[in-house]
């Protein structure tokens, strides 16, 4: 069979990501026969756990799958734990010997994934030590999977990149942006490039603006320490939002190879009009959540969260207008919006088409309804198209109607998890849905200007939106000045 075989070494194996996402994803790959019994997972972290402790964590993380007829103990027996000090070379030597032994036991042919799922301080050190102690020189392949944050700005990202590049080639590095593993984010390209109805209209002659919204209900919870140094701009815009924008804006690739797709994405990112530090306020709006009522309960303001400064200048909301200076997009604003503690958890893309040159049909209030293409990324997965049609017997009145395809209705359990897709891609050596260094660099350069402005002058209106709302008023004003408004369609 073609099932990939490998050992997955997880650094930070006691952490939240490993427990919430990685173990269940490996389980799903196993259950769905994407991987066979030829795999092993070695968890490393500082804490002194035993194999049994670790396997209990694994079993706990897959409790939701009780009804499968897979023996969870059998599955968990593929997991091993090594207490590990990332700065101690002896630990790497011992780990290497252990991996060689597992290779024999599980037929993994020297294939290794090193998955860095931990705080980024040690990313560079670990990569360097893996190489110097010989862990990357096996008879199979070895790949590095690296989680965000990939740096804090362009400079630190470049420094980190230089460090890991000393130990791994670019084509061995898989930088995770988990949005690229989402089913409907992957569908952006298919919808665009497999439909004769859309591609001819996908330009500034027919599209008036594109809106990308990713809103969350949760607040910062217990991630105050990380979030204070990040904010929504670094946490969501630099990566997820700009990646979705690149997929919407890119030219059709010549072929569906990782290199061709990436090169088109990079071109789209290069075409983004740079903003100068002084102009940031014209294009970007920041917000921070206040107290409010969510699901009938009173919730705290951001500044009242643990590990958050009571005068914090950190943004929990960003809205922005991005212009792309190329032939396809000149004149079409891309609006992005993301925030915590908003009204609902939802990620969606709205493509608003231009009005017809003349309208014969109006609704009762003389409104013209533009055509909208909506790509629902989560929690609903699907696409819908808002068209106009006659309803009833009022001949000259048109009403918006909705054509929709709902991906969830079939079998929700079978929609793969983002991490499941990405892990499988990595095992097969397909880097299409990972971010190349060039994309990371361009994204940082764009957002660095915005953070410079925001860090230089503190926001005088924080907190400026209530928990449970749709963000600060300024975010609506950003579109109103162009004659548009945010569509809420879910
Ligand atoms: C992560 C951010 O990258 O994405 C989190 O660090 C955010 O702050 C999360 O909550 C949102 O992801 P999703 O898949 O729930 O939309």
TrEMBL record:
GO terms for biological process: glucose metabolic process; pentose-phosphate shunt, oxidative branch. Residues 190-487 form the Glucose-6-phosphate dehydrogenase C-terminal domain. GO terms for molecular function: glucose-6-phosphate dehydrogenase activity; NADP binding. InterPro entries: G6P_DH, G6P_DH_AS, G6P_DH_C, G6P_DH_NAD-bd, NAD(P)-bd_dom_sf. Pathway: Carbohydrate degradation; pentose phosphate pathway; D-ribulose 5-phosphate from D-glucose 6-phosphate (oxidative stage): step 1/3. Residues 9-187 form the Glucose-6-phosphate dehydrogenase NAD-binding domain. It is an enzyme of class 1 (oxidoreductase). Keywords: Carbohydrate metabolism, Glucose metabolism, NADP, Oxidoreductase. The active site is at residue 240. Residues 458-477 are annotated as: Disordered. PROSITE patterns: G6P_DEHYDROGENASE (PS00069). Coiled coil: none annotated. Catalyzes the oxidation of glucose 6-phosphate to 6-phosphogluconolactone. HAMAP family: G6PD. Belongs to the glucose-6-phosphate dehydrogenase family. This is Glucose-6-phosphate 1-dehydrogenase. It comes from Aquibacillus salsiterrae.
């Amino acid at each position: 069979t073609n099932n990939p075989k490998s050992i997955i070494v997880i650094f930070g194996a006691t952490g939240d990501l490993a427990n919430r996402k990685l173990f269940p994803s490996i389980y799903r790959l196993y259950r769905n026969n994407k991987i066979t019994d030829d795999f092993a997972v070695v968890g490393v972290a500082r804490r002194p756990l035993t194999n049994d402790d670790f396997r209990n964590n694994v079993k706990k993380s897959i409790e939701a799958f009780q009804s499968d007829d897979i023996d969870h103990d059998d599955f968990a027996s593929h997991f091993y734990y090594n207490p590990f000090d990332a700065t101690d070379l002896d630990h790497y030597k011992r780990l290497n010997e252990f991996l060689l032994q597992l290779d024999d036991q599980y037929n993994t042919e020297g294939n290794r994934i090193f998955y860095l799922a931990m705080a980024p301080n040690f990313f560079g050190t670990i990569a360097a030590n893996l190489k110097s102690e010989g862990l990357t020189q096996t008879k199979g392949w070895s790949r590095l999977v690296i989680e965000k944050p990939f740096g804090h700005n362009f400079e630190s990202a470049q420094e980190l990149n230089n460090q890991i590049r000393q130990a791994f080639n670019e084509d061995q590095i898989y930088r995770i942006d988990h949005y690229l593993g989402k089913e409907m984010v992957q569908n952006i390209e298919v919808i665009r490039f497999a439909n004769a109805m859309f591609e001819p209209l996908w330009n500034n002659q027919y599209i008036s603006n594109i809106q990308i919204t990713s809103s969350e209900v949760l607040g910062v919870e217990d991630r105050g320490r990380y979030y204070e140094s990040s904010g929504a701009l670094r946490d969501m815009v630099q990566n997820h939002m700009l990646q979705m924008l690149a997929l919407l804006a890119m030219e059709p690739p010549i072929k569906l190879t990782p290199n061709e797709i990436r090169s088109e994405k990079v071109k789209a990112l290069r075409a983004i009009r740079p903003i100068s530090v002084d102009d940031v306020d014209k294009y970007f709006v920041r917000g921070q959540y206040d107290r409010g009522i969510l699901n009938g309960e009173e919730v705290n303001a951001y500044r009242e969260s643990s590990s958050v400064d009571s005068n914090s200048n950190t943004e929990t909301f960003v809205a922005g207008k991005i212009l792309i200076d190329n032939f396809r997009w000149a004149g079409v604003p891309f609006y992005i919006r993301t925030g915590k503690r908003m009204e609902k958890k939802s990620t969606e893309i709205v493509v608003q088409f231009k009005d017809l040159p003349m309208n014969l049909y109006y609704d009762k209030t003389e409104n013209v309804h533009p055509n909208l293409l909506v790509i629902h990324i989560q929690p609903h997965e699907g696409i819908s198209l808002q068209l106009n049609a006659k309803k009833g017997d009022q001949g000259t009145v048109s009403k918006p109607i909705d054509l929709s395809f709902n991906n969830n209705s079939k079998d929700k359990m079978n929609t793969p998890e983002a991490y499941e897709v990405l892990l499988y891609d990595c095992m097969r050596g397909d880097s299409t849905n990972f971010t190349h260094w060039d994309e990371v660099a361009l994204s940082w350069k764009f957002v660095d200007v915005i953070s410079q402005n925001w860090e230089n002058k503190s926001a005088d209106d924080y907190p400026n939106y209530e928990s449970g709302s749709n963000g600060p008023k300024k975010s609506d004003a950003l579109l109103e000045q162009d004659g548009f408004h945010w569509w809420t369609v879910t």
